[in-house]
Design a protein that fits this description.
51% helix; alpha+beta; 3 helices
C-alpha cells in the first residue's frame, strides 16, 4: 500500500520506516502485525522491563 504513504507525504506528514516508535507516552507502529510489540511496550511502561520480559518469555516471544 505504497500509495497511502505517498498520499500522507503529500499532506506534509514526515514518514519513517521504524517498526515501533515511542515518544513519551505515545506509541505508534507501522502495521497491525506490530500488535504484540505494542502490547509488550505498553506492559513495560505500565509495570517494569523485568515484568514485560517475564510475560514475553512465558508467551514464547
Amino acid at each position: 500500500m505504497m500509495y497511502k504513504r505517498d498520499e500522507l507525504a503529500n499532506f506534509g506528514i514526515a514518514l519513517g520506516d521504524e517498526w515501533l516508535v515511542v515518544d513519551d507516552n505515545i506509541i505508534t507502529s507501522s502495521c497491525p502485525k506490530t500488535a504484540p510489540d505494542v502490547a509488550f511496550q505498553l506492559l513495560q511502561m505500565l509495570t517494569s522491563t523485568e515484568k514485560a520480559l517475564e510475560v514475553k518469555e512465558a508467551m514464547g516471544y
